[in-house]
Design a protein that fits this description.
Blueprint lengths: L1 H15 L19 H5 L5 E5 L5 E8 L2 E8 L8 E2 L11 E3 L6 E5 L8 E5 L14 E3 L8 E5 L7 E10 L2 E8 L5 E5 L5 E6 L5 E7 L5 E6 L4 E7 L5 E6 L6 E5 L7 E5 L6 E5 L8 E6 L6 E7 L3 E5 L2 H11 L6 E7 L5 E8 L2 E9 L4 E7 L12 E7 L5 E7 L9 E5 L15 H8 L3 E5 L9 H5 L8 H15 L3 E11 L1 H12 L6 E5 L5 H6 L9 H8 L5 H9 L13 E6 L7 H13 L4 E6 L9 H19 L9 H10 E2 L27 E11 L2 E13 L3 E10 L2 E10 L5 E8 L2 E8 L2 E8 L2 E8 L11 H5 L9 E8 L4 E17 L2 E12 L6 E7 L5 E8 L5 E7 L2
Parallel strand pairs: 30-31, 30-32, 32-33, 33-34, 34-35
Antiparallel strand pairs: 1-2, 2-3, 3-4, 5-6, 6-7, 7-8, 9-10, 10-11, 11-12, 13-14, 14-15, 15-16, 17-18, 18-19, 19-20, 21-22, 22-23, 24-25, 25-26, 26-27, 28-29, 29-31, 35-36, 37-38, 37-50, 38-39, 39-40, 40-41, 41-42, 42-43, 43-44, 45-46, 46-47, 47-48, 48-49, 49-50
Helix pairs in contact: 12-13
Amino acid sequence: MKLLKLRFVFVCLFLLASLGTAIADKASGPPQLIDRDVIFGNPEIAVAQLSPDGKYVAFLKPWKDTRNVYVKAVDEPFSAARLLTTETKRPVAGYFWTRDSKYILYAKDNDGDENFNVYAVDPSVKPAAGADAPPSRDLTGLKAVRVEIFEVPKSDPDIVYIGLNDRDKAWHDLYRLKISTGEKTLVRKNTERITGWVFDLKGQLRMATRSAENGDTEVLRVDADAFTKVYSCSVFESCNPLQFHPGDERLYMETNKNADLTSLELLDPQTGKTEMVESDPLGKVDFGGALFSEATDELVETWYIAARVKTYYKNKAFGDDVHWIEHKFPNHEILVVSRTKDEQLWLVTAVSDTEPGETMLFERKAHVLTPQFKVREKLPRADLAKMKPVTYKSSDGLEIPAYLTLPKGVPAKNLPTLIVPHGGPWGRDQWGYNSLAQFFANRGYAVLQPNFRGSTGYGRKFLDAGNLEWGRKMQDDLTWGVKYLIAQGIADPKRVGIIGGSYGGYATLAGVAFTPDLYAAAVDIVGPSNLITLLDSIPPYWESIRKMFYKRMGDPSTPEGKTQLMEESPLNSADKIKTPLLVAQGANDPRVNRREAEQIVIALRDRGFPVEYILAPDEGHGFARPINNLALFMASEKFFAQHLGGRFQEGGTSAEVARLKEITVDPKTVVLAKKIDAGTIGAPKPVTDLHAGTYNYQVKIEMGGQQMNMKLSTVIQDGAGSWMATDQMDTPQGAATDTATLEKGSLLLLKRSVNQGPVAIDLDFAENKAVGKMSMNGQDKPIAVDLGGPLFADAAGSNQVIACLPLAEGYSTTFRNFDVQTQKVKLLQLTVAGKEEVKVPAGTFNALRVEISSADGGSDKRTLWIAGETHKVVKVTAVLASMGGAVLTQELVQ
């Protein structure tokens, strides 16, 4: 969806722009320490958007310490704004208005698991009695499914086209979602590795992009009953459709096919022929992006990012208005972040290296500019450090562009220094306000942010120079950055540290493992330590780029690729690390899972080397909650101060101190699940058989301060040579029934049938294989999986099956389950932890506490309380990973 993409491009530029600095101020003394809460806490107001009709402004503002959406009339003060959302666990990451200004849509996952659902809220609705905000409707309402938004057509403002990977985790089917009712209609089933859907200006599906088996990208014309390839580019090239040209006959596309620099071209969907529109007039960098008119759909501006952003205006009136604003804000970049559908009213934001964002309302006809708010109003702009783009040569002579931030008010000589490699690695840093660089510059550090080889924006040759160079020449680019600062006299060679997240976290670990004498301290944030396990655990919705990972990193399926990846994995050189290290990880990270952090923590701990570990249970790939960021950087600045000698702010608020204590893990307690040979796992032997009967339970599911109450009935029936177990639960999504056929005596699973709404699953289990099908909305998907052994205590009646084991204090066993959603086998470890008295609606029982957790690195966690004499399961608690860590409690009623 082009409108949404452009809006979020500007939001990202506005909030996340990278930073460099200029030469240090004269030695007038350092400014006062800026409170970390002012830098990393919630901004007072941020990310404003005009409604398309120009009547309202929506924005993000903290509510109960969590960023939520507010709305006000354009002519009202911000103090008069009304609360629209009531998230309390994680901030609203992004939102947008519908075309008719009737709804605001936003996406939400659970504790960072990246399984997003789409929500709608009507700003015109008043809150119910006792409520703080109008109700938000979950338009998609799916669990363990990642919803993607493809298009919000102008032709029908009540429609949004979305992708759902509920049928196949790796690929998104295209659905038409009616916002007012939540009705979903399948438009196109994705059985052809489609990665994107492109609509014309009339809202008609016209094009698609596909990831070929070899990693190439194919641009397809969508015909009534087929796809026709009209353009393609290799795995090392890019070709990305943007938006149809007015008239809908041709399509704007950015591509670098058979070229070094990416350019903007027009593609004819009928012939596949292209026409050059524009490439960098200076011939230095890739095409950066385009902005199209809301009123006419014409191209109004293009931009390119070298050391700074350079913008070219295609519409004179549009360009003249931006220039008029630029004159009022010299040395700032002006971002048009939101426009009405007639384009007569703009929200514009002025940003710079020392200005995170000053937002104004611009009335084009009257040329009136009205201040609205400053992002982080309390931030002392005069105390912020300037940025300077710099370049230096790497080990092989390749010129590396970078940004340097020097502390204000002190001589740029022999400074403690931090290298901050960006994530991706296929991304880049750029000029602008950067909270991390400003924070550490304020603490007295020189901060260097290198755009190492493999970074995007500088052409294919520079990007491809990073192929198969993780931990090698890509790491050299950081090392030679340190040498450059030492040669300039800026860095004290004994006080250089490194900090980074994601790939930057990998580069941090690689830095201390492969150049152990270079850094005196390091902070790794969600960085992979083992490239083999990283590639093994990438999310299924990244299947389209798996081949690209293999080509650019190394192919683990080949002997030479596996050898290289092992050599480039910091974990395998952990014995060389002698740099103090702090590791930070999100427990729910779907990209770099917690095993990546814990295996390096254990490796250092086991050789007696000190290591610090922070694990946030409510985060994913990076820390989104401000309280977690504040705790992390409280620890990080003190850690660097101890080892590099910079300044630091002692302590913090009581909430920050408490949170840091909660998420700090003693390395002595970290236990990595041992690898178990699944082929050696059979099934435990019951000491008693099932008995026919009915067990009724009350169930509650708690998540994010909300609670759902339901009822569960488990019925065990005696059949001919087998037991029939049926679990039936009434859920908000309708009745759900799970039926299992179990072999008498062994209680092994023979058959399973699941029915809930449009989903039906039927499986047979024989000769250690699962064979059957999953049906969704009438679409069948065959299932045929080699299980490697029998299934035990799986499906309906599983808790009653566990109660038939020889349970006693100290008893332990391992058994096999099958996850139907992922179609993967998982191993579970059962341990009897002791005896407890348990009170439930059915009475008070002396029960054995049975704990079940993953035995192969998964997230399963369940506790059963089983009455010793009757073998009744009287209580169950479970953490539901598929629901973002929601907690289920099940208690026997009768």
